Here is the input.
Amino acid sequence: MSRNIYVTNLSGHNQEFEVHGWNDNRNINVGAGQTYTINAPDGSSGAIIALHDGHEGEQAEITKNGWGGNDFIDLSNIVGAGGNMTVQQVNDPATRKGDPLFMQHLNDAWHRADQGTRQALERCVHRDNNDNVTRIDPIKDWPALETFVRTFADGKTYIGNGAWGGSPGNANDNNQSSAAHGNKDIQVTYNDGDATPPTSQAAPEPEPALASIDSAQVGGPGIILRNHRNEQQQYAFYNNYWNGNGTAGANFDHPDPIITVNGQDSLFVPLAESFKGRVQRGTQLPATWVEFQISAANDGAAHGDISLQQGCDGAATIASTDGSGRFNGFQHDIVSGAPEAAVRYKPDGTRALDTTVGNWNGGPNGAAIEWEMAQVGQRRAYIVGGTGTDDVASANKCFAVDFY
Here is the structure.
């Protein structure tokens, strides 16, 4: 099993991070106000390290599903600092590590320091033309810097070298490595200002069961399409123009078929086993996509997921009908309460959430990404990137697809 690490940049500029242990150890550059999702398998360990003019700074150190089935997380400034960072399990502030205003507290302490302290730290505390601190060197290399940082951050972040190599370390540092609460998604938040994460980073786990699936509706390869709205709705099926190994040529202009479903009703839509594409509400974008194929080449089963990359006009779920109980997606409204910056109206005036990857209407919408990560999360629907979303399989080549 694997979980996600959400790296959110709340600052007004792009921020580069080193990634150790995941993402093929490749750096990531997270846009202003955006979130990058990293898949983290159980038992894996690594770090997310902020870079400042090429220098390593604050870092979130994470072990997934470690001893006792718990995550172990801490926020360390051992190798330096140039910004503010926190790390916690999603929606569990009791597990939060790090000082969300570390740099502000550092700057205040610097301006209060006596002349002797300032002289001792002159070479490892970097300032701008107004004598405000912009970055500090690795604390592990400067004992005087460790003493100084403990005056305002002791017990909030990992400061010293820790308990290893025969050294007992500092008790407050050692406590930073305490176990979190089980195995969950992780939220890493960066900011030049307050790095307290958003109030909610991900939606609750979806309800384990949909309205009961009538086995009599399974008429062969296809989907049972259910409309949870009170008014009649049209749903458009788009078969990809071409399919490759992990790639596809999305069809935007030739839906076939277009199905009408009465309010609070459902029907079975038969499809060829060669179908590989999506169904969406209507023919306009932005729209929530339910992506699926009826018969995969490797196992002959149907496989599918939910995608918000081309927008969101309402909740959707996809579920197996073979008795395996597999399910993904979300059932709650995330459109009506979304910030206006995340919204794009359809040509017919319907309110929807904008694309997260870009299309002919414009580039990725950072506000939509942040909102959807907070309300749904990458595990339940593709928001950014091509990994981290659970696949649903149905051996009988038939899905139940519900639009809300």
Q: What stands out?
A: The first strand starts at residue 2 and ends at 9. Residues 98 and 105 are 12 Å apart (CA to CA). The helical segments are 102-112, 115-120, 143-153, 171-175, 366-375. Confidence is low (pLDDT under 50) at residues 200-212.
